[in-house]
Every structure is written in structure tokens, then in C-alpha cells.
What does this fold into?
Amino acid sequence: MTAPLGSPWSPPTGWVRPTPVPLAAPFGRRIGARLIDLALGLLVLWVITRFVPGDRLLGRLVLGFSALAAYEALFVLQLRATPGKLATGLRVAEVGRPRIDQVTAWVRGAITTVGTLAVVVTPAALAVMADSPEGLLVGGLVVMVAGASFLSIATAPLRRGAADRVAGTIVVPFEAPEVVDAATVDAEAETARPRPRTPWGPVATNLARRRARAARLDDAPVLVVLLVACVMAWTVDQPALAVALAVVWAVALVADETLRVARDGGTVGHRREGLVVLDEETGEAPTTGRAAARSTVLAVFWLFPPLLPVLWLWMQVSRTGRGPHDLVAGTAVVDLAPEEA
It folds into this structure.
């Protein structure tokens, strides 16, 4: 029902409905905020080096991590933003809540600090990569974490990096609604980056696929035992045995994944997230051959961990929402939840 013109409930003449404020914080302001916080973080780390001797590297790392995590968490708890975000007109909001929970703030602060420390030590990591195989491994890991920290923000819808997605938060402009609800976040993310669609439904989001992959071993005890044995072999300095167990684990993974995808259309993780692996041409569960090809390519990435960032980046930037394992097998991971709802 429309109020009559001139009534106290009608808008004034010439009134224009305000445009809703986009939730996505501008990327330039995010970079500016991070640079300010990084500079202040470096100052904190410099103070720590004045009090902790250089031969106590572990002590420096523990104190540095604790100080930077507290910097992130306490400012967000008290002011809803770090100094860098305050200077650039941004704040942190917990999705669906008017205030940020303490656990949420500390989880976000810890994950953000991992990326910050990786960025800080990247020059040193690059310097040691050519010294030894161990230096190459450690340096490569540091560079990978630093790069992933940046790319998780640069490539994600609404600029929700890894820390925000894990903690359930989002960085928004000051003028955004006080309470940011999950439905609005999902709708704007879908608008910012529409999901590719197949004749059988929309392609699963990267977040849903990561959650499904995290639950991959929930009903695969043999794979769990083999993985633990492989880690233990590395721990007791038995590299040959560890490599052999890793190969056995990869073969078992291929066999298990092939069976589940061909028979059930996915793993327990897929089913838990409402996802299904389909042949892109027929919409049916893949044949055993296609499922085996998909599983083999996936196992290669898991068998050589340095390749995992390549897989992650591929999935982030892919316009079709399909990784190399899906492209090789001619499959797609489809989200059935919207259709079932």
C-alpha cells in the first residue's frame, strides 16, 4: 500500500532511494590498510628483537606471533578495526552478529598473523632456498604461505581472504549495515562472481569444495592409517620407507576415490556438502575410467605438496570452476542444494 502524496509517511518531493553500500571493501583500501598494519607490525617485531637475543630464534618467533595476533584481535574486539583499517575507513564484521565474538577475533588474528609473518620473512626465505634441499623446502613453504595470503584476498569474492572465511567475518566499509547477514553476503558474492552453470545445476563453490575435501578421510580408515604411518616414517628419519608409504597411500587414494566417485558420484565430503561429481556430457556419475583419470590427477597433486598451491590458484581463477582433474576426466562438481531446496 502506498502512502498518499503529502502524508507524513510519504518521502519528500525529489527524494531518491539511497543506493545500498556494497559489502566488498575496495581492494586499494584493503592494500593501504594492510601496509599500515604491516608497518606497525614491523615496529612491534623490532621492539621484540631489542629484548630477545638473536640466538633465541624460537623465542622471537613465539613472542612475535603472540604480539601480532594480539594486535589484530584486541583492536578488532575493541574498535572493530585495526589502525590500518581505521585509517582507510574499513571495519571487521562477524557475519550474522552485531559484535565480534572473542574466539572469532582471536582465530582471525592468528590466521592473519601467519600470513603477516610469512610476508616479513619472505626475503630471508628466498635467500636460503638455494643453500640446501631443506632450505628450498622451508623457503618454498614460506613463500607459498605469503603468496596464498595475498591471493586469498585478491581473488576471493568480496575480498574475503582465508582468515575471514575461516573466522566467519568480512571486511566492509564503515558505512555498511551494522549487522551483515549471511544471505546478503552470499547474494553479493554470487553477483560479484556468478557461479558457472551446467545443465545439471550450478558448479560448486570453492569454499564448499574445500570443506568437502577436508572431510575426505572421515570414512576411509585405511587411508588414515597409511597417512599416519607415512608421517611417522619421516619423523623417525626413514625417508625411503616414507616415500614407499606415500606411494602406497597415493595408490590407495586413487582406488578409493575412483570407487566412490563412479559408484556414488562423490566422497562422503561431497555428500555432506550437497555436492555430486557428474559426467559433464551425460549428467550421470562418471564411468570407472573417467573416475580413475580424475583420481589419478588429483593424487599427483597430493603426492607432491609443492603442487597444491598450483591447484588452489587454478581453482581460484578458473572461469569454469573446474580443476585440472575435472578437465582431464570431463567431469564437473555440481551443487545440488539449490535444486533440492
Residues 140 and 329 are 30 Å apart (CA to CA). Residues 1-8 have pLDDT under 50 and may be disordered.
